[in-house]
Specification:
- InterPro entries: DUF4956 (IPR032531).
- This is DUF4956 domain-containing protein.
- Pfam families: DUF4956.
- The protein is built from six helices and three strands; from the N terminus they run H-H-H-H-H-E-H-E-E.
Length: 202
């Protein structure tokens, strides 16, 4: 029993020595990239903190699982298969918007890249900078004008008719104070003389 414990202890120390530098450098780059993505890109745009735990834990668990699996001979096809499986995960108790899902895919992708990349940590940092840079450009509105949307209930159903579209936009602008430029009708409620619509504004 004592001999077995000594052997296990020796193997653990040898494994730690082999993995320490590579593992912690990759983990540092991964966590730094996720911190910048969530704290300085996601939060300033959406002002939500309830998904912080989801993003960080998903990234960390996927990084560790993939890194350990990567010690076994694994093809690129298997890696993409893992990405597909992890990408399908979502919480059933609460709906996640398309943009939140996009950030979830980003944290999954960064974790996978950090775990299976064959290059050095410098190469990994360059990949992370490219992902962060492109995401920041798209979110900042420098490349394209950023459009926002809200779901509203509108009771003046007479203006919902196609021939009154311009009057509908003018009424929505006056009521909301937003620069509404287009509207999508989601459903009608003729019992309440109301319509559920999505308004888009800059």
């Amino acid at each position: 029993m004592i001999l077995l414990q000594e052997l296990i202890s020796i193997d653990q120390f040898q494994l730690f020595d082999k993995l320490s530098t590579k593992l912690f450098l990759r983990l540092c780059v991964d966590l730094a990239a996720i911190f910048i993505l969530i704290r300085f890109i996601y939060f300033p745009n959406y002002k939500r903190t309830d998904l912080f735990l989801t993003f960080f834990v998903f990234n960390l668990i996927i990084f560790l699982i993939t890194y350990l699996l990567n010690k076994v001979e694994m093809s690129m096809g298997a890696a993409f298969g893992l990405f597909a499986v992890f990408s399908m995960l979502r919480y059933r108790t609460e709906g996640i918007s398309a943009k939140d899902m996009t950030y979830l895919f980003l944290v999954i992708a960064i974790g996978l890249i950090a775990a299976i990349s064959k290059g050095s940590w410098i190469d990994l940092a360059i990949f992370a900078i490219i992902i962060l840079g492109v995401t920041h450009l798209l979110e900042s509105g420098w490349l394209i004008k950023k459009e926002h949307s809200k779901l509203v209930s509108y009771e003046n159903i007479k203006l919902v008719a196609p021939e009154h579209y311009e009057a509908l936009l003018a009424d929505l602008k006056a009521r909301t104070g937003l620069n509404v430029h287009r509207v999508e009708i989601q459903e009608f409620d003729f019992l309440k003389d109301a319509a559920i619509m999505t308004i888009y504004y800059y």
